[in-house]
Structure prediction request, 424 residues.
Amino acid sequence: MGVGDDMNKEIKKQLILSFVLLTFVVMTLFFWYQNFIFHTYGEKIDYQYCLYAQNDEWQIEGYEFYQKGKTQGYGHARMTPLQPQLLKKNDEMTVTLHLKNHQPLIQTIKVQNENQVLFLENKTGQNIFSEKDLQNVQLQIEVKRQKKSIYNQTLSMQKQDMITYTSANKDYTLTNVYVTEHWLKTGSFSSKDTKLAKKYPYMIVDYMYSKEENQEVDINDYERFLYLKGKTEDFLNDHYKDHGFYDGEESLLDMQLCCVITLMKSEDDSQPYTFILPLNPIQKGDS
Amino acid sequence: MKPGRKDKMTLYMLRNAFSTLLIAFVSFMISLISYYECSFVEALRRLFFVNIYTTLYFLLLWLLNYLIFEISKIIYDTYEQRFTYKSCFILCVVAGVLYFVEMLDLFRWNFIFLCLFIALRQVKQLWIHQKRPSNGL
Prediction:
């Protein structure tokens, strides 16, 4: 046998080995593809802001601005009157939002009860504002009683420090949970199982917090903060969003957060499938 | 095999490993930055610190690149007499065609860079071959 034959044999061996390895790698990449897409290219939001303002008479929390794809939204704030007799039944309140280089955005609320805590509606649309407009936001509050203006003040709104939380196990993810010190916006739930909504048509999502600093999640340490119940399909299509306000003295950012997901075959399923998704901070939400 | 040649071989293998790693890394960065419209640092964080699945897929893609490159080397060194600058041109055309093929941008960029890298290595070998026989590295 000549030297050249030995070389050819060696090359053949190398080539066969490389092709066997290549087949293994390609197969692994192929079978992992869905899993990889599911965990890597999750839902994205262009931006999310949460604003806060306070003066002697009002506390405004959780005024959000967001852009998700082409849809923009604002509102959802909680307005708490801090002085007694500030609001009376049938008062008309006009909340005007002044953005930099932009037409004012006006929302009107009819007061139902004396000193009622008000929640601003969420308004959505396209091209309402740009991210640059949110540099200097002013909120003008006007209260009219029997068509007479009795209160008119403008508050400067401050952006709040926000952290995005996420959670994932092998089959489920919960992404884009936005949290500030006293506010939380629920995230987007998704599953690798494409038939989940058929298997479990209803589901419950509980957002919980714990002041204990344990490494392991012990659900007995947690207190329920937000409760959502609805159709699984709505959760998967991200049609179900809610906002929670935490009124304790501590900051939500210093606590451990988790979600308890309950998947049910019927609305009153006595043996639902329940699991915990611990929420982990990933980034500043305002970037 | 002479000791000097063995050292050189390790060096070339390291170079190939590094180049294919760079190809996978740049492709991932382009894909993540364009998808999330985020900064380089944010894309880096998403690649290595958000979940293990992304990181493992990145390492697998690197391994795939390395294997394809090694196979291309073996094929080239075996049939080096038949290869001309024309084959490099064909590889560049394949890279151009890949740009318009509908697939995940991560794979598109990865295979474009890989084709160009293989073409570049062939150009280098052809250029060396004009002076002296191929060293097969």
